[in-house]
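Example record

Each entry pairs one chain with its bound ligand, 2-(butylsulfanyl)adenosine.
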Amino acid sequence: MRAPTDIIQQAADLRRQIAYHAWRYYVLDDPEISDAGYDRLFRELEALETAWPALVSSDSPTQRVGGGLANGFAPVTHALPMLSLNNAFTDADVSGFAQRVADALGSQQTLEWAVEPKFDGLAISLIYQNGKFLAAATRGDGATGEDVTANVRTIRAIPLQLSTDHPPSRLEVRGEVLMLKRDFQRLNDDQLKQGAKPFANPRNAAAGSLRQLSPAVTASRRLHFFAYGVGLCEGWEMPPTHSAILTQLAEWRLPVSDVRQVVQGVDGLLGYYYTIGKQRAHLPFEIDGVVYKLNNMALQAQVGYVARAPRFAIAHKFPAEEATTELLAIEVQVGRTGALTPVAVLEPVSVGGVTVSHATLHNEDEVRRKDVRIGDWVNVRRAGDVIPEIVSVVFSRRPPNAREFVMPTHCPVCGAVVIRLPDEAVARCTGGLHCSAQRKQALWHFASRRAMDIDGLGEKLVDQLVDQGLVEDPADLYRLTITQLTALDRMGEKSATNLVESIAASRHVPLERLVYALGIRHVGEQTARDLARHFGSLTGIMQADRDALLVVRDVGDVVADAIVQFFTDAHHRHVIEKLMDYGVESVSRSAVSVRQTPISGRSVVLTGTLAAMTRDDARDWIERLGGKVTGSVSRKTDLVIAGEAAGSKLEKAAELGITVWNEQEFMALINEQSGAH
Ligand code: IVH
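Structure tokens for the complex follow.
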């Protein structure tokens, strides 16, 4: 039965709202409404569709997880072949490429390039018919791919309907399906918990997730997508440049990376390469290089293709991040919470330009699963600034005398018994703070940059302080004297004075940093921030019972129990009392931002790379100065802070006439305001 007009209207309206909020959430990473608000809209639509089944259409957000893949992955012939890119590895390769393009154009002028990340995922082609998502296919061999429509439909970042009243009659969007690093981490944690094999990297995880016969499984894997070009196109006059095409796709609410840019000449290309190389570890997704494309579409056509790759574009790859080496031994490290981590000692090897001599093996199960033995040849991987890890064993090179690893039954540092709870992957030293390894780790964490930020208190120094009995717990730091410190190895008068000063300066920190610094199990920075906001004081948090804690965002049973347990411990209470006695006084965020600053209550967007600090630090500062950080530039943005290689957000800001600060202006505000403390 056909639904009444007002019901049809209501459903269309709900779909529009849901699509809008999904875009804010999945594409811009800047939601406007709460998850609960979103769920409410979704349930309202579901209820309408249940009452009026004729309302259901394939582009309804309720239909993302639809029927299975009846005929597996049927072959699809691409209307235009999906090509690959040639690779450049060195600066000379890049100038050679640019020269060939210039020669092909017979041009002496500086060329304009659209530059973007080389996403490390899988190439996908999406077909939109009159603005409606119709089908998706993998690249396959370039000529024929596989129909993965049902699975791609579950990717929330991909709009089921383009946001325009005048869509092309047919449009093929090309791009990359990938898994964000954080979703990859979560997936692998889940895999481990379920005793399943973890994925080697986000690309494998994305590929495995896309090729599932059940779309419900794909949906649970949270894949992401970035568009990087257009294939077939009918009923739309394409803009004259590649960058403008991507901007148009973004306006239709297709996800397009904002790390892309337009640059001039070879210097521009290489500048982008090195800037992105530095940002790489901080990007939310994996990239294996950058891609340069001649920006002008007419010139692209003029330069043309060689074999199966365009001559007007090239991928400039980052150095390989995997290498093969010999595993000499497996040592066991004791962490802050007593967790014992097996660490591989390697014959030093260069991985992506950095010498690696140790790699983590995570835990005992991981050693078994990968079947790593002492004496094996192993593949080692490092990505950005994360700890290198063993990817796999080269079984064909296993020597006959390779030895299996056995987890010690006693802590290698303090000798206490090691236990492993039945539902835990890790074995733990039961020595608690009697174990000097745990004490050291706790101190080191306390002093770390994102906790109390005590400059100059590195690992070596912590070792000495603990080994010589000068410091037993974090509070002892505050009574260290210059005389005590100068007696230590490699500690001059000057560094001792600086250290005492930075310890003293750390006494006034925002509450969330102190909470994080305490090292409560399961309380990371975000939870610390939420707790600080909710309770406003350390005493408030200490007095909260389980029920009071469970009200805080993202605090579940495990976290609440860990917090209660931490503050019930007499030793912990004693240390906190000592800290207070020494004048450590945490200030809640609201107390800091009571004072008016030029950005109080303003909505601020960060873009590009800052030289002096990480993005997290910048975000921290903005929040401390009373500003609110949002992900994307809109009319509601008050200020954009642009570092190096700022991309489309900067263009957007200029378009909307929003104030833009460079890093110096931002630093000036920080200096002025922190001086005023
Ligand atoms: S353009 C005609 N842009 O790299 C060239 N490709 O080696 C079409 N890729 O199969 C590709 N990021 O899967 C282009 N920003 C980007 C890319 C990108 C990743 C992948 C894509 C392609 C492969 C080519």
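The longest helix spans residues 5-27.
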